[in-house]
Amino acid sequence: xxxxxxxxxxxxxxxxxxxxxxxxxxxxxxxxxxxxxxxxxxxxxxxxxxxxxxxxxxxxxxxxxxxxxxxxxxxxxxxxxxxxxxxxxxxxxxxxxxxxxxxxxxxxxxxxxxxxxxxxxxxxxxxxxxxxxxxxxxxxxxxxxxxxxxxxxxxxxxxxxxxxxxxxxxxxxxxxxxxxxxxxxxxxxxxxxxxxxxxxxxxxxxxxxxxxxxxxxxxxxxxxxxxxxxxxxxxxxxxxxxxxxxxxxxxxxxxxxxxxxxxxxxxxxxxxxxxxxxxxxxxxx
Length: 285
Prior knowledge:
The model has no long low-confidence stretch (mean pLDDT 97). The chain has one domain: LigB-like (Protocatechuate 4,5-dioxygenase, Chain B, 3-Layer(aba) Sandwich). Strands 1, 2, 3, 4, 5, 6, 7, 8, 9, 10, 11 and 12 form a twelve-stranded mixed beta sheet that branches. It is globular, with a radius of gyration of 17 Å. 40% of the residues lie in helices and 22% in strands. It has nine helices and twelve strands.
């Protein structure tokens, strides 16, 4: 079976098992994070429709991402997590899924749900099997150790990265995902989208822009969200995954809630130019 080796262990997150666990636990206990460790192995609340987590290095966005994974720890365990991130490298197709095999991290191997990957590709008429786009991409990779820490070993993934960021792509992914839930998988699958928000502007400018984006997200209207990002020229690196999560909520009759917002300036203290990080829950009404 094909194994996708970690490309960013030792850069975006540590390279050894013990150090990864420490970095994740430090993210949960960080003042910007939830402030406590989660219960591991699954909770008693129903799975939500989707989450949105950031994807920078753990030292920057880990505490914000921890809010997503803390909430996930309170839920029933999904069997498969569809992880949709942006393509930063420019390699590969417009929308690419790694369709079989395993993804390796310092915490072990996670199996790709090949049947769900094929189903998602078929239903979007956009996503296609393609490994080149994933080889050096970090947005999906950095989510997997957090999932392993919270869920343990018994889950699968569908890794997707999107190069062409469009509203149409967002809606296609959302429709395909919700139809898979309703017709095939029920609450056994979960959409985990990943996006950072505004990049490399001063702290106050970034906060103003990002909060308006998140206000638009909480309306539950994907078109309003997309238009807000474009109108304010927010340099989000993942508007399609973010909008797909919101659109999934609209289709399924859910609600959007911001769990946490912070930016790199809140973590490092450097506020001359910062990157914004969202933690978003798309839950049942």
